[in-house]
Amino acid sequence: MPPEAYHTSFSGWGRYPVAEGLEIKSEDLVRSTAGAALCRGLARSYGDSSLPACANDTVVDTTMADRLLAFDQDSGLLRAEAGVSLLELNRLFLRGGWFVPVSPGTQFVTLGGMVASDIHGKNHHVDGCFGEHVRSLRLRVADGRIIECSDEQEQELFRATLGGMGLTGHILEVEFRMRRIPSPWIRGESHRIANLDAMVAGLKEAAGAWPMTVGWVDCLARGESLGRGILMKGCWAEPDEAPGTPPPTKRRFRVPFQFPGFALCRASMKAFNLLYYYKHIQREKRGIVHPDAFFYPLDMLDDWNLIYGRRGFTQYQCVLPHAEDNGPARRFLDLFTSGGGMAFLCVIKDCGPEGKGMLSFPRPGISIAMDFPVHREKTQGFVDRLNELVIAEGGRIYLTKDTFTREEHFRAMESRLDAFNAVRRKWDPQGKLRSAQSVRLLGDTI
Amino acid sequence: MKAVVMGATKGMGRALARLLAERGDRLFLLEHLPEELERTAGDLEIRGAERPVGTALCDLLKPETFAPALDAAERELGGLETVIVTAGLFGTQEQLERDPQFAAQVLLADFTNTVLFCEEVRKRLLARGGGTLCVFSSVAGERGRKPVVLYGSAKAGLSRYMEGLDHKFRAAGLRAVCVKPGFVKTGMTVGLKPPPFAGEPQDVARRVLRAVERGTPEVYVPPMWRWVMCAIRSLPRFAMRRIGF
Ligand SMILES: Cc1cc2nc3c(=O)[nH]c(=O)nc-3n(C[C@H](O)[C@H](O)[C@H](O)COP(=O)(O)OP(=O)(O)OC[C@H]3O[C@@H](n4cnc5c(N)ncnc54)[C@H](O)[C@@H]3O)c2cc1C
Ligand SMILES: NC(=O)c1ccc[n+]([C@@H]2O[C@H](COP(=O)([O-])OP(=O)(O)OC[C@H]3O[C@@H](n4cnc5c(N)ncnc54)[C@H](OP(=O)(O)O)[C@@H]3O)[C@@H](O)[C@H]2O)c1
Q1: Could you tell me which of A26, A348, A134 has the C-alpha nearest to residue B185?
Q2: Staple A62 to which of A18, A51, A83, A105, CB 3.0 to 4.6 Å?
Q3: Concatenated DSSP letters of B190-228
Q4: Do A71 and B46 touch (CB under 8 A)?
Q5: Ligand 1 centre from A214 Cα, in Å?
Q6: Of B32, B40, B132, nearest to B80 (Cα)?
Q7: Number of other residues whose CB lies within 10 A of the CB of residue A114
Q8: Which residues of A touch chain B, with CB atoms under 8 Å apart?
Q9: How close is the Cα of B86 to the center of ligand 2, in Å?
Q10: Residue of B39, B47, B187 with shortest CB distance to A92
Q11: Record: contact A67-B42, CB cut-off 8 A
Q12: What whole-number distance in Å separates Cα of residue B67 and Cα of residue B73?
């Protein structure tokens, strides 16, 4: 008998939308996933990826299933339950000289979430997505069976699950390869960049020499300075250049309450972006940095999503193919800024080759991500226009960030969708596994 | 430290065992489900516990398993030093009123059998000249309260037993540590609405570990619950009849 389910309301990191449903939370993933429609980890996906499709669907909160099951000191192969957080993995392994092969921009994610979104990081141009480093998954599929899948065993199911947003099965255990690092510190460099061309050129140039790169773009700058920002590069510091001590635990701060709507006006965003840009007074900074400051600058502030107030916010992330003149990225940023889009944060990154995840987000090109508040009338139309441009440019969006994309738009940008749906139908002919997002985007029925 | 933990597979026991593991302590686990034992031992080893983490099957509902399990622990650790019991059962007042069979199990596990287990431990520790026995009771045992009439009565008995052990055997070297958790967010309380001052298992574990090291006879976790219960104990009967707490 699975543990008792109780009614609750769910939302993602964007706090919009909110859905009602049943939740089960227990240390015992095997028992709790029997009959469930979906799993969710730390709910850092922004929109409706981890939300139930309807009030009768059960979603399993995996975060209490956090045991490490096996670790091989020689190869770095780690097997763990899907609910273990990246925060905990870093706490336990960093000082011993190990790090996850790929990390997102927050530590508040679970292993299951990292697999289901097939997350990418600052090292995508050299290491690909997290899924490239996963050896095997233990999965509870829709008919209740528990299946071990990998590239050698049930390969199709395995590859559909990497980036499959929890729709192919409940991930119970993940086996992946941790990476040896020379020290737990980062040697970093950052440069102030004047415009988009310089940013893309900077990312390309850095890609050869640096294993980790990312850019931050001032989304309010237009015209000549469109795409201006800060380019950050990093690599793990060698023992002789790093401090001899492990990085201290950083103090975190908490946003104490939901901000009122007016806190988030154009002026405050402009001020933030200007400050961030000019804080970088020198054209160039170099030095040894704390890994948290490098990988997870936003984690300093707990519950920062409350800053966006009652109506919540969303993130739009797309990847646009490379072009000699950076046309696609320029047209996208132009549309964003002229369409009244404003964002505190806009992150730009060059992506490497497409990986093996059947529906994984990255493909070669420029990825751009920006957060903005949800506006009842305007956001849907705004996202529609962004999506139309992305379709015309041959790009695609990232499901784990998405809240507003329409089914027909998604279909137009995802040539891989039929193959993915075929695998889903094979393993789940009755459509038991679903999310609010899969109803919205993949045509699942309630 | 060399510690035997019954209940390390989940909740506060899991958090406490992990703290010990990260210090490199020597652990021995007691549990009634073989697979859970094995997976938990593996987790603790990776987190730094001295290898191997020993295990033995022990079921709180089967007192005949107590002595053999403790014998195995004693053999493997070369004598008992510290024994921690977090294992226990819980049911809401509603569930227990509805289902007498389940009520019997909870009463049996949380009082009679826990005490019988502790008696086995007491004999062994005293035979060695002393040691620490840390048992998780509950603030539910502090006063007869509407939401925990049945569960609370078992915990009340357990708290009294721990108090008696402390009075009688402290001089002989037995340090009885009675932990009284208030509301802590574990699997046991999932789905219940957390009151103010609800605790996290990791924070509770840190406090309990300090108490175990010092041999503190009575520990409220989170500490705020000492004052909450102090107030509740001083309420007159007519007030207790009125309030839902
Ligand atoms: C500040 C911030 C920075 C971020 N930076 C990046 C980044 O740099 N790169 C990047 O790729 N992403 C990034 N993300 C997105 C984040 O990494 C993903 O959304 C990730 O999936 C969140 O993990 P989670 O455990 O919170 O999963 P949830 O949000 O809880 O769930 C996400 C999806 O995974 C599924 N899922 C979760 N657990 C399981 C399981 N056990 N079995 C099956 N399905 C499961 C859910 O159904 C859902 O579809 C960022 C998010 C934030 C808030
Ligand atoms: N959580 C609270 O708010 C709270 C408040 C007051 C007091 N307490 C008390 O504190 C203690 C720990 O609570 P918790 O919240 O950490 O509980 P929990 O998460 O439910 O863990 C209970 C532990 O007891 C074990 N157990 C259950 N039945 C058993 C049996 N028959 N034989 C052996 N082991 C058994 C469980 O193992 P399996 O799951 O494998 O069976 C589990 O490891 C309990 O005594 C509880 O009564 C808790």
Answers
A1: A26
A2: A83
A3: TTSPP-TT-B-HHHHHHHHHHHHHHT-SEEEESTHHHHH
A4: yes
A5: 19
A6: B132
A7: 29
A8: 3-4, 6, 25-27, 64, 67-71, 92
A9: 6
A10: B47
A11: yes
A12: 10
Q: Is B77 exposed, middle or buried (0-12, 13-18, 19+ CB in 10 A)?
A: middle
ipTM above 0.90, yes or no: yes
Q: Can you tell me which residue has the tokens 């289901």?
A: A116
Contact call for residues A170 and A140 (beta carbons, < 8 A) = yes
Question: What mean pLDDT comes out for the span B50-59?
Answer: 98
Q: Which residue in this structure is represented by tokens 């009842």?
A: A376
B116, B63 Cβ separation under 8 angstroms: yes
CA distance B6 to A163: 39
The CATH number given to B2-242 is: 3.40.50.720
Q: Does residue A38 line the site of ligand 1, with CB under 6 A?
A: yes
Per-residue pLDDT reduced to its tens digit, B107-122: 999 999 999 999 999 9
Assign A92 to helix, strand or coil.
helix
The strand pairing partners of B131, in sequence order, are B174
pTM value surpassing 0.90: yes
Q: What letters, b where the CB count within 10 A reaches 16 and e where it falls short, cover A51-72?
A: bbbeeebbbbbbbbbbbbbebe
What three-state secondary structure class fits B23? coil
Domains plus CATH for chain A?
Answer: 68-181 (3.30.465.10), 186-411 (3.30.70.2520)
B114, B58 Cβ separation under 8 angstroms: no
Residue A263: predicted pLDDT: 72
Residue nearest atom 45 of ligand 2, based on CA coordinates? B88
- Interface check for B46 against chain A (CB to CB < 8 A): the answer is yes
Helix or strand holding residue A402 (H, E): none
| Best of B43, B59, B64, B86 for a ligand 2 pocket test (most atoms within 8 Å of beta carbon) | B86
pLDDT 10s digits, A365-385: 999 999 999 998 999 999 999
Question: If pLDDT is split at 50, 70 and 90, which confidence band does A1 have?
Answer: low
Closest ligand 2 atom to residue B199 Cα is: 3
Write out chain B residues lying below 8 Å of A64, CB-based: 187
Active site residue B151: yes
Nearest to B191 among A4, A70, A71 (CB): A4
Query: Do the Cβ atoms of A103 and A89 come closer than 8 Å?
Result: no
- By C-alpha distance, the chain B residue nearest A70 is B42
DSSP string, A249-290: PPP-EE--SPPPGGGS-HHHHHHHHHHHHHH--SSEEEEEE-
